[in-house]
Write a structure and sequence with these properties.
The complex is a heterodimer of chains A (285) and B (148). Chain A has 285 residues and is mainly α. Chain A folds into 2 domains: 3-152, no CATH class; 173-284, no CATH class. Chain A has helices spanning 16-41, 44-52, 55-76, 84-108, 118-142, 158-176, 180-188, 191-216, 226-251, 260-284. In chain A, helix 2 (44-52) packs across helix 5, helix 6 crosses helix 10 (260-284) and helix 9 (226-251) packs across helix 10. Chain B is an alpha+beta fold and 148 residues long. Chain B folds into 2 domains: 16-56; 64-146, Immunoglobulin-like (Sandwich). Chain B has 3 helices and 6 strands, in the order H-H-H-E-E-E-E-E-E. The radius of gyration of chain B is 29 Å and the shape is elongated. The chains are: A mainly alpha (285), B alpha+beta (148). Chain A binds chain B through residues 155-159, 162, 180, 183-184, 187-188, 190-192, 194-195, 198, 202, 217-218, 220-221, 223-225, 228, 231-233, 235-236, 238-239, 242, 257-262, 264, 268, and chain B through 1-2, 5-6, 9, 12, 19-20, 22-24, 26, 29, 31-33, 35-40, 42-43, 46-47, 49-51, 53-54, 57, 91, 93, 115-116, 118-123, 148.
Protein backbone atom coordinates (compact mmCIF):
# COMPACT_ATOMS: atom_id res chain seq x y z
CA UNK A 1 0.00 0.00 0.00
CA UNK A 2 1.53 3.23 -1.14
CA UNK A 3 1.34 6.48 0.71
CA UNK A 4 -0.65 8.04 -2.10
CA UNK A 5 -3.43 5.49 -1.78
CA UNK A 6 -3.82 6.44 1.81
CA UNK A 7 -4.73 9.98 0.82
CA UNK A 8 -7.56 9.83 -1.66
CA UNK A 9 -8.29 13.52 -1.49
CA UNK A 10 -4.81 14.40 -2.54
CA UNK A 11 -3.93 15.84 0.82
CA UNK A 12 -0.35 14.81 0.40
CA UNK A 13 0.98 17.39 -2.00
CA UNK A 14 0.82 18.20 -5.66
CA UNK A 15 3.49 16.14 -7.32
CA UNK A 16 2.49 14.69 -10.71
CA UNK A 17 2.80 11.18 -9.30
CA UNK A 18 0.34 11.94 -6.53
CA UNK A 19 -2.09 13.47 -8.96
CA UNK A 20 -1.84 10.52 -11.29
CA UNK A 21 -2.47 8.20 -8.37
CA UNK A 22 -5.49 10.21 -7.32
CA UNK A 23 -6.86 10.05 -10.84
CA UNK A 24 -6.32 6.31 -10.94
CA UNK A 25 -8.02 5.88 -7.56
CA UNK A 26 -10.98 7.93 -8.66
CA UNK A 27 -11.28 5.91 -11.85
CA UNK A 28 -11.28 2.72 -9.85
CA UNK A 29 -13.86 4.05 -7.43
CA UNK A 30 -16.08 5.22 -10.28
CA UNK A 31 -15.80 1.79 -11.89
CA UNK A 32 -16.83 0.11 -8.66
CA UNK A 33 -19.70 2.54 -8.23
CA UNK A 34 -20.97 1.71 -11.73
CA UNK A 35 -20.61 -2.00 -11.25
CA UNK A 36 -22.62 -1.95 -8.05
CA UNK A 37 -25.30 0.59 -8.85
CA UNK A 38 -26.14 0.31 -12.56
CA UNK A 39 -28.84 -2.32 -12.00
CA UNK A 40 -30.53 0.05 -9.56
CA UNK A 41 -30.17 3.06 -11.83
CA UNK A 42 -32.12 1.13 -14.44
CA UNK A 43 -34.96 0.26 -12.06
CA UNK A 44 -37.91 2.63 -12.30
CA UNK A 45 -39.01 2.04 -8.72
CA UNK A 46 -35.72 3.49 -7.57
CA UNK A 47 -36.44 6.73 -9.43
CA UNK A 48 -39.92 6.91 -7.92
CA UNK A 49 -38.62 6.23 -4.45
CA UNK A 50 -36.34 9.22 -4.88
CA UNK A 51 -39.35 11.50 -4.53
CA UNK A 52 -41.95 9.31 -2.81
CA UNK A 53 -39.72 8.36 0.08
CA UNK A 54 -40.54 10.45 3.16
CA UNK A 55 -37.83 13.00 3.98
CA UNK A 56 -37.18 11.47 7.39
CA UNK A 57 -36.45 8.01 5.99
CA UNK A 58 -34.17 9.38 3.31
CA UNK A 59 -32.38 11.31 6.03
CA UNK A 60 -32.03 8.17 8.17
CA UNK A 61 -30.54 6.36 5.20
CA UNK A 62 -28.05 9.09 4.38
CA UNK A 63 -27.17 9.57 8.05
CA UNK A 64 -26.46 5.85 8.44
CA UNK A 65 -24.43 5.42 5.31
CA UNK A 66 -21.49 7.57 6.40
CA UNK A 67 -20.65 5.66 9.61
CA UNK A 68 -21.30 2.44 7.69
CA UNK A 69 -18.78 3.41 5.03
CA UNK A 70 -16.29 4.49 7.68
CA UNK A 71 -16.55 1.17 9.44
CA UNK A 72 -16.35 -0.66 6.11
CA UNK A 73 -13.22 1.27 5.25
CA UNK A 74 -11.73 0.27 8.60
CA UNK A 75 -12.77 -3.36 8.18
CA UNK A 76 -11.36 -3.58 4.71
CA UNK A 77 -8.12 -2.23 6.01
CA UNK A 78 -7.83 0.47 3.40
CA UNK A 79 -5.79 2.29 5.95
CA UNK A 80 -3.63 0.16 8.08
CA UNK A 81 -4.30 2.59 10.87
CA UNK A 82 -7.51 2.89 12.78
CA UNK A 83 -7.40 6.65 12.44
CA UNK A 84 -11.04 7.67 12.18
CA UNK A 85 -10.19 10.79 10.20
CA UNK A 86 -8.64 8.71 7.43
CA UNK A 87 -11.73 6.51 7.40
CA UNK A 88 -14.02 9.53 7.35
CA UNK A 89 -12.06 10.93 4.42
CA UNK A 90 -12.31 7.58 2.67
CA UNK A 91 -16.09 7.44 3.28
CA UNK A 92 -16.68 11.00 2.08
CA UNK A 93 -14.60 10.32 -0.99
CA UNK A 94 -16.70 7.22 -1.76
CA UNK A 95 -19.91 9.22 -1.26
CA UNK A 96 -18.72 11.97 -3.57
CA UNK A 97 -17.72 9.53 -6.29
CA UNK A 98 -20.99 7.62 -5.81
CA UNK A 99 -23.10 10.77 -6.08
CA UNK A 100 -21.19 12.06 -9.10
CA UNK A 101 -21.49 8.74 -10.96
CA UNK A 102 -25.20 8.46 -10.10
CA UNK A 103 -25.94 12.00 -11.23
CA UNK A 104 -24.06 11.53 -14.50
CA UNK A 105 -25.83 8.28 -15.38
CA UNK A 106 -29.28 9.55 -14.36
CA UNK A 107 -28.82 12.66 -16.51
CA UNK A 108 -27.82 10.45 -19.46
CA UNK A 109 -30.93 8.34 -19.00
CA UNK A 110 -33.14 11.42 -18.88
CA UNK A 111 -34.23 10.55 -15.37
CA UNK A 112 -32.89 13.87 -14.14
CA UNK A 113 -33.52 17.15 -15.90
CA UNK A 114 -33.86 20.83 -15.16
CA UNK A 115 -37.66 20.81 -14.99
CA UNK A 116 -37.63 18.74 -11.80
CA UNK A 117 -37.84 20.12 -8.32
CA UNK A 118 -34.68 20.27 -6.24
CA UNK A 119 -36.20 17.78 -3.80
CA UNK A 120 -36.76 15.25 -6.57
CA UNK A 121 -33.24 15.62 -7.94
CA UNK A 122 -31.64 15.40 -4.51
CA UNK A 123 -33.80 12.40 -3.58
CA UNK A 124 -32.99 10.47 -6.73
CA UNK A 125 -29.25 11.09 -6.54
CA UNK A 126 -29.05 10.44 -2.78
CA UNK A 127 -30.82 7.11 -3.09
CA UNK A 128 -28.64 5.88 -5.96
CA UNK A 129 -25.50 7.18 -4.30
CA UNK A 130 -25.86 4.67 -1.46
CA UNK A 131 -25.05 1.49 -3.44
CA UNK A 132 -22.70 3.48 -5.66
CA UNK A 133 -20.68 4.64 -2.64
CA UNK A 134 -20.44 1.10 -1.30
CA UNK A 135 -19.22 0.00 -4.73
CA UNK A 136 -16.72 2.84 -4.88
CA UNK A 137 -15.28 1.89 -1.51
CA UNK A 138 -15.12 -1.80 -2.34
CA UNK A 139 -13.41 -1.16 -5.65
CA UNK A 140 -10.59 0.61 -3.88
CA UNK A 141 -9.91 -2.36 -1.69
CA UNK A 142 -10.68 -4.98 -4.30
CA UNK A 143 -8.83 -3.76 -7.35
CA UNK A 144 -6.27 -1.67 -5.60
CA UNK A 145 -4.17 -4.12 -3.71
CA UNK A 146 -2.50 -7.44 -4.03
CA UNK A 147 -4.33 -10.41 -2.56
CA UNK A 148 -2.11 -10.71 0.47
CA UNK A 149 -2.78 -7.12 1.37
CA UNK A 150 -6.43 -7.69 2.06
CA UNK A 151 -8.55 -9.99 4.13
CA UNK A 152 -5.67 -12.26 4.99
CA UNK A 153 -3.88 -10.12 7.50
CA UNK A 154 -6.93 -8.18 8.60
CA UNK A 155 -7.98 -8.53 12.17
CA UNK A 156 -11.24 -10.42 12.17
CA UNK A 157 -13.52 -10.04 15.11
CA UNK A 158 -16.95 -11.59 15.58
CA UNK A 159 -18.58 -8.16 15.57
CA UNK A 160 -16.64 -7.29 12.43
CA UNK A 161 -17.82 -10.50 10.83
CA UNK A 162 -21.46 -9.66 11.60
CA UNK A 163 -20.90 -6.14 10.31
CA UNK A 164 -19.63 -7.42 6.98
CA UNK A 165 -22.66 -9.71 6.83
CA UNK A 166 -24.90 -6.69 7.39
CA UNK A 167 -23.22 -4.79 4.55
CA UNK A 168 -23.61 -7.79 2.24
CA UNK A 169 -27.28 -8.12 3.23
CA UNK A 170 -27.85 -4.39 2.81
CA UNK A 171 -26.29 -4.43 -0.60
CA UNK A 172 -28.33 -7.30 -2.05
CA UNK A 173 -31.45 -6.26 -0.18
CA UNK A 174 -31.14 -2.73 -1.51
CA UNK A 175 -30.88 -4.15 -5.01
CA UNK A 176 -34.10 -6.09 -4.79
CA UNK A 177 -36.32 -4.32 -2.25
CA UNK A 178 -37.46 -1.47 -4.51
CA UNK A 179 -38.92 -3.82 -7.12
CA UNK A 180 -42.61 -4.53 -7.04
CA UNK A 181 -41.84 -8.22 -7.35
CA UNK A 182 -40.72 -8.39 -3.72
CA UNK A 183 -44.21 -7.76 -2.42
CA UNK A 184 -45.87 -9.49 -5.35
CA UNK A 185 -44.02 -12.71 -4.48
CA UNK A 186 -45.01 -12.38 -0.84
CA UNK A 187 -48.68 -12.01 -1.84
CA UNK A 188 -48.53 -15.22 -3.82
CA UNK A 189 -47.06 -17.20 -0.94
CA UNK A 190 -48.91 -19.09 1.76
CA UNK A 191 -47.44 -19.26 5.29
CA UNK A 192 -46.06 -22.70 4.40
CA UNK A 193 -44.20 -21.21 1.47
CA UNK A 194 -42.80 -18.79 4.04
CA UNK A 195 -41.63 -21.63 6.29
CA UNK A 196 -39.94 -23.30 3.31
CA UNK A 197 -38.26 -20.03 2.33
CA UNK A 198 -36.88 -19.53 5.85
CA UNK A 199 -35.46 -23.06 5.92
CA UNK A 200 -34.03 -22.71 2.42
CA UNK A 201 -32.39 -19.39 3.33
CA UNK A 202 -30.79 -21.01 6.36
CA UNK A 203 -29.55 -23.96 4.30
CA UNK A 204 -28.05 -21.70 1.62
CA UNK A 205 -26.40 -19.51 4.23
CA UNK A 206 -24.95 -22.47 6.01
CA UNK A 207 -23.48 -23.75 2.77
CA UNK A 208 -21.78 -20.41 2.26
CA UNK A 209 -20.60 -20.20 5.87
CA UNK A 210 -18.98 -23.58 5.55
CA UNK A 211 -17.44 -22.99 2.16
CA UNK A 212 -16.22 -19.52 3.01
CA UNK A 213 -15.41 -20.19 6.65
CA UNK A 214 -13.07 -23.02 5.82
CA UNK A 215 -11.47 -21.13 3.01
CA UNK A 216 -10.60 -18.18 5.21
CA UNK A 217 -9.42 -20.60 7.84
CA UNK A 218 -9.27 -18.04 10.58
CA UNK A 219 -12.78 -18.26 11.98
CA UNK A 220 -13.73 -21.91 11.77
CA UNK A 221 -11.31 -24.69 12.39
CA UNK A 222 -11.77 -27.65 10.02
CA UNK A 223 -13.13 -29.92 12.73
CA UNK A 224 -15.73 -27.53 14.12
CA UNK A 225 -18.97 -29.54 14.29
CA UNK A 226 -21.57 -28.30 11.83
CA UNK A 227 -24.04 -27.29 14.51
CA UNK A 228 -21.48 -25.10 16.24
CA UNK A 229 -20.90 -23.14 13.04
CA UNK A 230 -24.65 -23.08 12.49
CA UNK A 231 -25.37 -21.49 15.86
CA UNK A 232 -22.40 -19.13 15.86
CA UNK A 233 -22.54 -17.89 12.27
CA UNK A 234 -25.53 -19.05 10.26
CA UNK A 235 -28.30 -18.17 12.74
CA UNK A 236 -26.89 -14.73 13.62
CA UNK A 237 -26.25 -14.14 9.93
CA UNK A 238 -29.88 -14.89 9.11
CA UNK A 239 -31.06 -12.69 11.97
CA UNK A 240 -28.92 -9.89 10.51
CA UNK A 241 -30.41 -10.51 7.05
CA UNK A 242 -33.95 -10.38 8.47
CA UNK A 243 -33.26 -7.16 10.35
CA UNK A 244 -31.68 -5.46 7.34
CA UNK A 245 -34.53 -6.64 5.10
CA UNK A 246 -37.14 -5.23 7.45
CA UNK A 247 -35.23 -1.94 7.74
CA UNK A 248 -34.94 -1.60 3.96
CA UNK A 249 -38.65 -2.40 3.49
CA UNK A 250 -39.50 0.20 6.10
CA UNK A 251 -37.28 2.78 4.45
CA UNK A 252 -38.92 2.13 1.10
CA UNK A 253 -42.39 2.52 2.63
CA UNK A 254 -43.44 -1.07 2.12
CA UNK A 255 -44.59 -1.52 5.71
CA UNK A 256 -46.96 1.45 5.93
CA UNK A 257 -50.52 0.53 6.95
CA UNK A 258 -49.77 -3.09 6.15
CA UNK A 259 -50.77 -6.06 8.28
CA UNK A 260 -48.13 -7.85 10.38
CA UNK A 261 -48.51 -11.02 8.34
CA UNK A 262 -47.74 -9.23 5.07
CA UNK A 263 -44.76 -7.42 6.59
CA UNK A 264 -43.39 -10.73 7.89
CA UNK A 265 -43.86 -12.42 4.52
CA UNK A 266 -42.24 -9.59 2.56
CA UNK A 267 -39.34 -9.59 5.04
CA UNK A 268 -38.84 -13.33 4.56
CA UNK A 269 -38.91 -12.95 0.78
CA UNK A 270 -36.33 -10.16 0.87
CA UNK A 271 -34.28 -12.02 3.47
CA UNK A 272 -33.53 -14.78 0.95
CA UNK A 273 -31.35 -12.60 -1.29
CA UNK A 274 -30.18 -10.62 1.74
CA UNK A 275 -28.97 -13.77 3.44
CA UNK A 276 -27.08 -14.79 0.32
CA UNK A 277 -25.51 -11.33 0.35
CA UNK A 278 -24.69 -11.67 4.03
CA UNK A 279 -23.16 -15.11 3.67
CA UNK A 280 -21.22 -14.23 0.56
CA UNK A 281 -19.97 -10.98 2.05
CA UNK A 282 -16.67 -12.52 2.96
CA UNK A 283 -16.17 -13.68 -0.61
CA UNK A 284 -17.01 -10.31 -2.11
CA UNK A 285 -15.72 -7.88 0.48
CA UNK B 1 -13.54 -9.64 21.61
CA UNK B 2 -10.56 -8.88 19.44
CA UNK B 3 -8.04 -9.46 22.15
CA UNK B 4 -9.71 -12.72 23.10
CA UNK B 5 -9.76 -14.10 19.61
CA UNK B 6 -6.30 -13.17 18.50
CA UNK B 7 -4.49 -15.76 20.63
CA UNK B 8 -7.01 -18.41 19.60
CA UNK B 9 -6.18 -17.83 15.98
CA UNK B 10 -2.48 -17.94 16.58
CA UNK B 11 -2.94 -21.21 18.38
CA UNK B 12 -4.89 -22.60 15.45
CA UNK B 13 -2.17 -21.57 13.05
CA UNK B 14 0.66 -22.70 15.24
CA UNK B 15 -0.47 -26.10 16.38
CA UNK B 16 -3.58 -27.97 15.37
CA UNK B 17 -4.09 -29.67 18.70
CA UNK B 18 -4.65 -26.46 20.63
CA UNK B 19 -7.09 -25.19 18.00
CA UNK B 20 -9.16 -28.37 18.27
CA UNK B 21 -9.76 -28.07 21.96
CA UNK B 22 -10.97 -24.49 21.68
CA UNK B 23 -13.25 -25.03 18.74
CA UNK B 24 -15.03 -28.12 19.98
CA UNK B 25 -15.56 -27.02 23.55
CA UNK B 26 -16.84 -23.63 22.43
CA UNK B 27 -15.74 -22.25 25.76
CA UNK B 28 -13.83 -19.50 24.02
CA UNK B 29 -16.85 -18.00 22.32
CA UNK B 30 -19.42 -17.15 25.00
CA UNK B 31 -20.62 -14.03 23.15
CA UNK B 32 -20.94 -15.92 19.89
CA UNK B 33 -23.02 -18.62 21.54
CA UNK B 34 -25.23 -16.01 23.21
CA UNK B 35 -25.82 -14.16 19.93
CA UNK B 36 -26.43 -17.48 18.21
CA UNK B 37 -28.96 -18.57 20.80
CA UNK B 38 -30.79 -15.25 20.60
CA UNK B 39 -30.92 -15.49 16.81
CA UNK B 40 -32.15 -19.07 17.11
CA UNK B 41 -35.00 -17.92 19.32
CA UNK B 42 -35.87 -15.24 16.77
CA UNK B 43 -35.98 -17.78 13.93
CA UNK B 44 -38.08 -20.17 16.02
CA UNK B 45 -40.56 -17.41 16.87
CA UNK B 46 -40.75 -16.55 13.18
CA UNK B 47 -41.43 -20.17 12.21
CA UNK B 48 -43.99 -20.55 15.00
CA UNK B 49 -45.78 -17.40 13.85
CA UNK B 50 -45.91 -18.69 10.27
CA UNK B 51 -47.21 -22.09 11.38
CA UNK B 52 -49.79 -20.47 13.60
CA UNK B 53 -51.05 -18.20 10.85
CA UNK B 54 -51.17 -21.13 8.44
CA UNK B 55 -53.70 -22.78 10.72
CA UNK B 56 -55.44 -19.65 11.96
CA UNK B 57 -55.93 -17.90 8.64
CA UNK B 58 -59.06 -18.73 6.73
CA UNK B 59 -59.48 -18.52 2.98
CA UNK B 60 -62.22 -15.93 2.82
CA UNK B 61 -62.05 -13.78 -0.30
CA UNK B 62 -60.96 -10.15 0.07
CA UNK B 63 -63.59 -7.93 1.68
CA UNK B 64 -63.48 -4.18 1.55
CA UNK B 65 -64.36 -1.38 3.93
CA UNK B 66 -64.19 2.16 2.62
CA UNK B 67 -64.04 5.38 4.63
CA UNK B 68 -63.83 8.97 3.48
CA UNK B 69 -61.01 10.39 5.58
CA UNK B 70 -60.88 13.95 4.33
CA UNK B 71 -62.47 16.24 1.79
CA UNK B 72 -60.40 19.13 0.53
CA UNK B 73 -61.56 22.00 -1.69
CA UNK B 74 -58.98 22.28 -4.46
CA UNK B 75 -59.11 24.98 -7.16
CA UNK B 76 -62.25 24.09 -9.14
CA UNK B 77 -63.20 20.86 -7.43
CA UNK B 78 -63.18 18.67 -4.35
CA UNK B 79 -60.75 15.90 -3.47
CA UNK B 80 -62.13 13.14 -1.25
CA UNK B 81 -59.40 11.01 0.32
CA UNK B 82 -60.72 7.46 0.62
CA UNK B 83 -59.16 4.70 2.70
CA UNK B 84 -59.92 1.17 1.56
CA UNK B 85 -59.26 -1.61 4.08
CA UNK B 86 -59.14 -5.28 3.16
CA UNK B 87 -60.78 -7.24 5.97
CA UNK B 88 -60.70 -10.58 4.14
CA UNK B 89 -57.96 -13.22 4.09
CA UNK B 90 -56.67 -12.84 0.55
CA UNK B 91 -54.74 -10.11 -1.21
CA UNK B 92 -56.55 -8.19 -3.92
CA UNK B 93 -54.74 -6.67 -6.89
CA UNK B 94 -55.81 -3.86 -9.18
CA UNK B 95 -58.79 -2.89 -7.02
CA UNK B 96 -61.19 -0.58 -8.84
CA UNK B 97 -62.82 1.98 -6.55
CA UNK B 98 -65.75 4.00 -7.87
CA UNK B 99 -67.52 6.90 -6.19
CA UNK B 100 -71.02 8.06 -7.14
CA UNK B 101 -72.03 11.48 -5.90
CA UNK B 102 -75.57 12.82 -6.06
CA UNK B 103 -75.64 16.49 -5.18
CA UNK B 104 -78.01 19.23 -6.29
CA UNK B 105 -80.05 16.82 -8.40
CA UNK B 106 -76.96 15.85 -10.45
CA UNK B 107 -75.02 12.60 -10.62
CA UNK B 108 -71.25 12.61 -10.75
CA UNK B 109 -68.73 9.77 -10.75
CA UNK B 110 -65.07 9.47 -9.80
CA UNK B 111 -62.71 6.56 -9.47
CA UNK B 112 -59.20 5.27 -8.83
CA UNK B 113 -57.38 1.94 -8.75
CA UNK B 114 -55.21 0.37 -6.08
CA UNK B 115 -52.27 -1.78 -7.27
CA UNK B 116 -52.19 -4.14 -4.31
CA UNK B 117 -54.40 -4.34 -1.25
CA UNK B 118 -53.02 -7.07 1.07
CA UNK B 119 -55.22 -8.78 3.64
CA UNK B 120 -55.51 -6.76 6.84
CA UNK B 121 -53.99 -3.68 5.22
CA UNK B 122 -55.21 -0.26 4.19
CA UNK B 123 -54.44 1.76 1.05
CA UNK B 124 -55.62 5.22 0.07
CA UNK B 125 -56.71 7.00 -3.04
CA UNK B 126 -58.53 10.17 -4.00
CA UNK B 127 -61.88 10.71 -5.74
CA UNK B 128 -62.23 14.00 -7.57
CA UNK B 129 -65.62 15.73 -7.93
CA UNK B 130 -66.82 19.08 -9.19
CA UNK B 131 -69.36 19.39 -6.38
CA UNK B 132 -68.79 19.10 -2.66
CA UNK B 133 -69.32 15.50 -1.50
CA UNK B 134 -70.12 16.80 1.97
CA UNK B 135 -73.22 18.54 0.61
CA UNK B 136 -74.61 15.50 -1.18
CA UNK B 137 -74.83 11.74 -0.96
CA UNK B 138 -71.60 9.87 -1.76
CA UNK B 139 -71.65 6.13 -2.40
CA UNK B 140 -68.38 4.27 -2.80
CA UNK B 141 -68.25 0.85 -4.42
CA UNK B 142 -65.55 -1.65 -5.30
CA UNK B 143 -66.35 -2.65 -8.85
CA UNK B 144 -63.72 -5.34 -9.31
CA UNK B 145 -60.28 -6.70 -8.49
CA UNK B 146 -57.93 -9.44 -9.63
CA UNK B 147 -55.72 -12.00 -7.92
CA UNK B 148 -52.09 -11.01 -7.61
Amino acid sequence: MSAARARPAGAGGDSPATRRQLLKDTGRAAGGALLFSLPMMMTQEMWQLGYTMPDVRLLVLVALILPLLMELSRQLGLQHSSDWRQNLLEALYACAVGAAVSAAILVCFGVLDATMSLREIVGKVALQAVPAAIGALLARSQMGSSAGDRIGDRKETYAGELFLMAVGALFLGFNIAPTEETILISFRMSPWHGVATVLLSLAIMHGFVFAVGFKGGSELEPDTPWWAAFVRFTLPGYAVALTISLAVLWMFGRTYDTSLMEIVMATIVLALPSSVGAAAARLIL
Amino acid sequence: MATKRAPARKAAQGGKKQGDANAVSGGRHPVEWAVGALSGVLVLVLLAYLAWSAFAAGDAPPRFRTTVERVAAVDDGFHALVAVANTGDGTAADVAVAGMLSAGGDEETGGFRIDYLPAGSTRRGTLVFKRDPRQGELRIAITGYSEP
